[in-house]
Amino acid sequence: MNLNNISLPYPVLGINDDILPLLPEDCLTPNVTETQGRKAYVFNIDLKFENDDIAELIKQGKAEYSCEYDCARTMIRSCERSSEPHFEITLPRKNVYGRINFKCYVSVKTRINGYTNRGFNEDYAGAEFDMEPGDILVAFPEFRYDVDIRYDKLQAAGSFMQIRESETHDDVYFDISGDKIEILLPPRHYQLYTKNAVRGSAQIIHSSLVMNALTYALMRIDEYEHTTWAKTIIYRMETEDGYNVEDLEDFNKILSIAQKLLRDPYLRLFNHLIENSTSN
User: Fold this and answer.
1) What is the reported pLDDT for 217?
2) Residue 2 pLDDT exceeds 60
3) Which residues pair with 102 in a beta bridge?
């Protein structure tokens, strides 16, 4: 979460270097599970910060933890409060769709006159602030969860791509406007694709059709960030080792990203050809 665009008239822990020490890397730890029968999502969120003055305000009941969450697609918006740095939020599957955003804070519970903090940046040396209920003391990084992403199948290309027949195209066509990257094959192509000899050669398909479609999509991912395929790829690049999501902005790195996402399709192709040659 980029908190630099928030402007407040008082220092907040978590925004720039207003208060030191800064929030630790594990200041927000989310864990998402599903209830038995997959009828609801359960979000367990643990919060952490290192500031004795703010911790004392919570202990005195003058401040509290809060967690705001919203789902734009279903118009849900709510806020939960706690005196402990932990939230367990259960949301029925039928009530949410698309992206759920979570924003966690430590906020003022009762009016605080002359608030000061030993961790204030030197720019605020000697300053005191009168804080009203709802004012933010700590702003944790934003956490988001896309319920339409199949997190259990992220490593499979099929989680964001599919091949199907199209009677409206005379040539192979890539459609990236929907939730999956679709490789559309004309009937004469699709009939050949369905033969066992072709479908059984995933290495060849990945290094040709799939690689081309994915490269095409990555070059235009900024235009389709709202789609499930784009959100799936961005999530992988934000959470998996070996990726940097900012590389998507570099045209020269797109080909390399596509190869990583497909687990080096060219190497698998070469090994496949060698194995077939040896067996024959």
Assistant:
1) 96
2) no
3) 69, 143
Three-state secondary structure string covering 129-171: EEECCCCEEEECCCEEEECCCCHHHCCCHHHCEEEEECCCCCC
Task: Write down all domains in the chain, each with its CATH number in brackets.
Answer: 28-146 (2.60.40.10), 151-279 (no CATH)
| The token pair that represents 264 in the structure block | 């080096």
Whether the CA torsion 46, 106, 72, 235 is positive or negative: it is negative
Asked if residues 39 and 96 have their Cβ atoms less than 8 Å apart, the reply is: no
Tell me if 140 sits within 8 A of 28, measured CB to CB: yes
Residues 6+ apart with CB under 8 A from 270: none
**β-strands 161-165, 181-185: how paired?**
parallel
Nearest to residue 8, comparing CAs of 141, 132, 143? 132
Residues in the chain: 280
pTM, two decimal places: 0.69
